[in-house]
Amino acid sequence: MPAKDDSFAAFDPLLAEADVSSSPWTGPNGRYEPHLPLLKAMLAIPISQGEAAKSQGGRTIKALDAWIAHELRRAGFAPHEVWPRTRQPRVLPASLSDLEEQLETLAAALTAHETEIGRSLRPVLLRRAIRALRESLPRGGAAHILGRFYAKQVDVVISSWQHGPELLVSTKSQFSSYNKNRNNRYEETIGEATNLRDRHPMAAMAYAFLVRSNIYEERGAFALLRDLLVRLRKPDGPYAATMLLVADWSDALSLQSVSDADEQLTASRFFDDLIGSALANTPVQIHPEVRKRRGDDLRGGLPSSGEHAEPDPSAPQQPT
């Protein structure tokens, strides 16, 4: 049962039905094609409930987080290594995913056995110990990544004990008063990027921004935000990718559309640049499924990653 404070639970049914098995690189010249209709369906849930009117967008920004994580799974990253996950706990070290599955199997077997015999397993201490194993896993609802100066909550993450942070995405939403505290927002964004970049120079970092279509009604607001997001991107800025999306909904809280705001800041380019940076910063044997779906040259196959590698049966055997 979802926890009361689980902001992602409302999106789980949509994500459960969404395809993550086929490559998203289907556009012209192999361009990444993000599934914007799914994002629209996810955003419609909190917007219809009035969440977008709350400070910091309420659960609306969580829809964007969950969608970006879904797109990374579409790209071929393993489901258990992308946070937020599509299940609780939303953050769990990828290395523990196999253990998590085994503990669930054990718990299900315990329940089935108790049902069959019509009573609780004896001794009671053994039964309690089995049920406590699953709860002892390290878990969390948010990912806090240590930077140079402080630990920062990052919205979408790919990280592991073996590799450390590989991909970090910060998201932000704003639906009114776009020019208010504009300089503070710029300073906050640069400070966050510097904090993380200094400690994790090889991580692929990105920044995604969601606004409402009323941004065009506030003089200069769109041009200034677009300029900021373009400047934040490499080669001159700290981020490998930046994105600006515009949502349009009526006063009756009916979402009409979600679309790219500018050719330089499209969702397609965002995922191409972000994933490209992540792959460029890791050895070729890491994330083989992503490389395969992207259409990389895999002639001769990829070398083993060295993690959980099966022994080569043709290799000479050492005497024991």
Word description of this protein:
Helices cover 37% and strands 16% of the residues. The chain is built from 9 helices and 8 strands. The protein has helices at 12-17, 36-48, 60-74, 97-117, 124-135, 182-199, 221-231, 267-280, 288-294; strands at residues 82-83, 143-146, 151-154, 156-160, 164-174, 204-212, 241-249, 255-260. Strand 2 and strand 3 form a beta hairpin. Helix 2 packs antiparallel against helix 3 and helix 4 (97-117) packs antiparallel against helix 5 (124-135).
In short:
Helix content is 37%, strand content 16%. It has helices at 12-17, 36-48, 60-74, 97-117, 124-135, 182-199, 221-231, 267-280, 288-294, and strands at residues 82-83, 143-146, 151-154, 156-160, 164-174, 204-212, 241-249, 255-260. A hairpin with a 5-residue loop joins strand 7 (241-249) and strand 8 (255-260).
SSE map:
Blueprint: H1 12-17, H2 36-48, H3 60-74, E1 82-83, H4 97-117, H5 124-135, E2 143-146, E3 151-154, E4 156-160, E5 164-174, H6 182-199, E6 204-212, H7 221-231, E7 241-249, E8 255-260, H8 267-280, H9 288-294
Parallel strand pairs: 5-6, 6-7
Antiparallel strand pairs: 1-4, 2-3, 4-5, 7-8
Helix pairs in contact: 2-3, 4-5
